[in-house]
Task: structure prediction
Amino acid sequence: MSKEEALLQGGQQAPLRGRRILVAKPGLDGHDAGAKVIALALRDAGAEVIYTGLRRSPEYIARVAVDEGVDAVGLSILSGSHKHLVEQVLGQLRDAGAEDVAVFVGGTIPAEDRPALAALGVRGIYTAEMPLAEVIGALAGALE
Amino acid sequence: MNAPERPEVEARLANTSPSGIEVPIQVGPEAIGSERIGRPGEYPFTRGIFSDGFRGRLWTIRQYSGFGTAEESNERYRFLLEQGQTGLSVALDLPTQCGYDPVDPMATPEIGKVGVSLSNLAEAEILFDGLDLAGISTSFTINGTAAIVYAMYLAVADKRGVARAKLTGTIQNDILKEYVARGTWIFPVRPSMRLIADSILYSNEQTPRFNPISIAGAHVRDAGCTAVEEMAYTLANGLAYVDELRARGGDIEKFAKRLSFFFYVHMDFFEEVCKFRAGRRLWARLMKERYGVSDPKAQHFRFGVVCGGSSLVAPQPHNNIVRVAVETMAAVMGGAQSIFTAAFDEAFQIPTEFSAELALRTQQMIAYESGIARTVDPLGGSYFVEQHTDRMEAAMEQVMREIDDYGGVVKAIENGWLQMRIARRALERKMKVDSGESVVVGVNHFRRTETGEIGEQFRLDPNAARRVLEKYERVRSTRDAHAVARTLARLTDASRKERENLMPYLIDCCHAYATIGEMVGALKREWGEFAEPVRLS
Result:
């Protein structure tokens, strides 16, 4: 195991092995560096990762989540439209009978908006400063 | 809002240091006995494109700004101009950038969030109301819809009777980097390149003082690249535009004078300074050696910069004030033509009026109090700076060769090869911060448990979207529908003819109050949309 891999896995062997995770970019925001970093890091931590690419509608994201049978969806939003888009994705998942899919959010999410997202059912909010090992640890914990 | 009283003596760059020592405008190679480094204003322009540096003309102080409705943004522009800003930089919302009308379901959640909503000429008339279009230079961060927004700006000038030849400013208009990093692409690469060539060639004739493109490395840098890669990818894209314009019959001695560039400045001071010196020399060499360009002005590498971006962090946000100051000094040492300093809260919100003003004052203090702008390229001749410049230039050429070996930038972008390279770099950068190898004060070293108060928070007017939608409906119901249909049909016809310049057709559409979504829709029907290569390996 390389030093980087060891760091990512927080000392564990592939903590996300066997998990299927969809990393998605809802809305028009084109900043995908964070989404790609997370996608690559989750894959290195053992997960099977599907990345949607840019500018996806909530309907599309929910459909892919259901079709691919993922355990979790990570939404990356930096445009400030997180409340609206998260609500829509959660609604679409519910309509598709996939409310058991855990939804996580990353991006530019002001502290005062976090309780509202949690109340909607978001299972974790991860921002840029959080170390990847912590993100992976938190995700693995939430999916247990 | 009243403008503050002006001091009696105009702000200027003094010719002595605070201790009264004479400060020359420039120091030549005779000072260190080297013939290799050259003089400012002379080929290969390592030391700057102007012999008199900032003493001839200071860089343009241009703060990126815009949010919500055209009315609110117009008010912020008036505030910034009253505070001594010397150019406007218009931030547009994502629907405007991606070519959707505000009523589109994809657009509605994003109205006015990251910039101002500008869906038709009526909004542009409000945005620039009371501003002197002939007197200010206006920059638009716009790419996928750059030709349309440029057409709208010309239409506003036409309606106000402002001569087009007097207009100054910039449209970013660099689609290649949008495919790689920023993501506001619309059409496939080929027709996008055509639209860019159309706007540049039209601008060269109609608005000769306007920069019809700002080839940008900033966004790939923020997405993960190193400083060397930022410059190398940008110059490679620049060459792709040059080749496109030449294939369209453009005269390189003419259009190359209006090409401009745009970069991020991050925290490593000498790396940033040398990046600009190396890039400026490399571009001049490419123009002269590869294309035989002889007019020095067409060899000039003119660039704007933004200080901040991903080098700014949310924990202990006031630390960002210092970061931006250091970065601004590097931009000045590198010889930038325009500077935008991000506000300290820009890592997590639209700046408040307080933080926006502080960012502006940072530039003014560096310009007029610090004295660093008095002598052009004051670091020129430093053994380290010259060596580092040489080494960065060689590394940039190496990266450009790798792109050539792959088959050129267009192929590298269409296949997602370049995007993947940058994503891997971003992961490396993040790993180095996580491990503590790259120090970010307050984030991975010297942290406090409580991260400090942000202070004042910016809140978008929750009614902005509703007002935008109301105005949009009003324009749609009061305009001449026949004129809209007629101008859009002509645009469609023209788009089918490869060599027809689309700019006059777009300007006609704007005058008829056709919306951005209608114009983009007409072109999408002919050209289709870009198929994003989604890959993780």
